[in-house]
Each structure stands twice: as C-alpha cells, then as structure tokens.
Amino acid sequence: MSTEPVIGAALSFAGTGNAVDDVIERARVAAAAGLGAVWLGQRFDYDAIALAALIGREIPGVTVGSSAVPIFGRHPIIVAAQAQTAQAATHGRFQLGLALGAAELTEKAFGIEFRRPALRLQEFLIATRELFATGTVDFRGEELSAQAPLPTSLPGADPVPPILVAALSPRALAVSGRYADGILPNLAAPRVLEGHIVPAVTAAAEEAGRPAPRIVAAVTALVTDDPAAGRERLFAATGFYERVPSYRRVLELGGATRAGEIGLVGSAADVRAGLHEYLDAGATELILTQTGLLGREVERATWEVAATVGR
C-alpha cells in the first residue's frame, strides 16, 4: 500500500518583533494549511534544532526538522545532545538534517579550513549514529574524534531521530547512502534527481545493506498571478547558491545557470504539476522553500496548493 508523501515547508521569520514567536505562528499557519512538516535552516542568529523543538512542543502533530545544520564548526556529541533534546521535547517528531555547508561561510565564521568535507561527513555520521544507538561513543577518525566521558542517552528521546543530509556531490551522496537515513537535495531539478541523485544515493544504500533512503527534495515555489515579479524575487534570494560548487554542478546538470530558474512560479495548476514532477522523479517527500518572498497571502496559497499534492 502506498502512502501519501509528506509535504513540508521551510520557515523563516519576518525580521520584526519576536523572531521565535513569529516562526511558531507561521508554523501554525502551515499546519492549518495542511502541511505535515516544517523545517528550519541553520543561520547565525538562531539555532535550528532548538527552534524546531519549540515549534514541535507548541504544535502537536506536526513533524519538525533542521534543514540543515552544517557540520563544520560543530561536534557530534553536541549535535546529538541537541537532537535528542528536540526528540524528547516533540515526543518523537524531530528529524536531524545535516549539511556540509559552504567554504565561503565556514572559513570566515569559524576560522577553520573547509577540507575533506566528504570524509568529515562520513566520520560525523558514524559518530552520531553510534551516540544514538548505544548512548556513548569512542570514535577516532582522521578529521574528528569523539569520546563520551559520560553516558549520552536521554530518557524520552525515542525513537532514534532520523538523520538526513543535504547532499549533492557524488561523494557526499555515496556517504549519505551508506550512513544516513536519507538526503535533503536542494535546487536539483527533477531530471537531476532522477538521472543523478536518486540512483547514486540508492546504490550506496543498497551496497551497504541499508533501507531505501528517503529523498526529501527542497523545491522553491510561489503560487502567484505575477510570475515575473516572483521570479525576480527568487533570483535575488537564491543568488548565493550560484557561488557554491556543488550547487553550480546541479544547476548545470538541470540546464540552468541561475538558481532562480529552478523554482516553480506561476498558477496553482502550474505549481501543483511541477511538484508532481519531483515526486515522479524519485522524491519521497517535499520541502517548499522561499514561499514568503511575495508576502503571507502568497505563502499561504502556495502551502494550500502543495498540501493537495499526492492526495
């Protein structure tokens, strides 16, 4: 028996008033619109895991997750403790999304070299999975080490939070297939999902004897009667990704040069059809992103349309 795909939304705040209150209210609106999950990107002004825990505590029934927390500048013991706290706070509705991040931000912010990212990802996943599974860790790798001097299990943090990775490059996809529960690809057009990303991560999971990975695709979407204005706002909001090598690669594979070209912008029928293309290409779940660029009314309309996909 097939199940309906979970459709979620990435949340941000308006920039005025109390940011936490604002995001929680937007999560209420998303849940009321029919969405089953909300996701928080990691920034420098709030903590995505903590905010996800607050949302899940306030709004019963909705799944919450980080999409995604960069691993550079963080340690598995700390991140696992944060994730377990969120899992206990939400009574099992938290999902841990991790990312490699971007060298441009990592090196400037933390003063550490962005080196051997795929190996660091592998070691981070091994250590985190050990912490979740055993309540301790004793791991010594080439890029990081993790030894817990005290037990790390947290009562109430059940089940073990799923780990998903914002993976795009071949090496990151291979590592994610072997050690994670799924991936969070962003700006990957349907033909890129179907022809490159899904086969790579699925093959790695099969080789490792793991279940089929979840493919939680992030899709920019705006339901609007002014697609030209929406597209311009999308170009401005997503230009940063064009400077990141992994994103440039998937954009080129999708026949695009600018990140804003990948977004679904137009009528309800157009956006709904575009979302179905992602599911047909192998996505098991979707995350709508950049939905607030044209205001709250457009955002709610976009969420309501997306909530009907798969029904």
TrEMBL record:
InterPro entries: F420-G6PD/mer (IPR050564), Lucif-like_OxRdtase_MSMEG_4879 (IPR019910), Luciferase-like_dom (IPR011251), Luciferase-like_sf (IPR036661). It holds the Pfam family Bac_luciferase. The keyword Glycosyltransferase does not apply. Residues 16-259 form the Luciferase-like domain. It comes from the Bacteria. Keywords: Oxidoreductase. This is TIGR03564 family F420-dependent LLM class oxidoreductase. The lineage of its organism: Bacteria, Bacillati, Actinomycetota, Actinomycetes, Mycobacteriales.
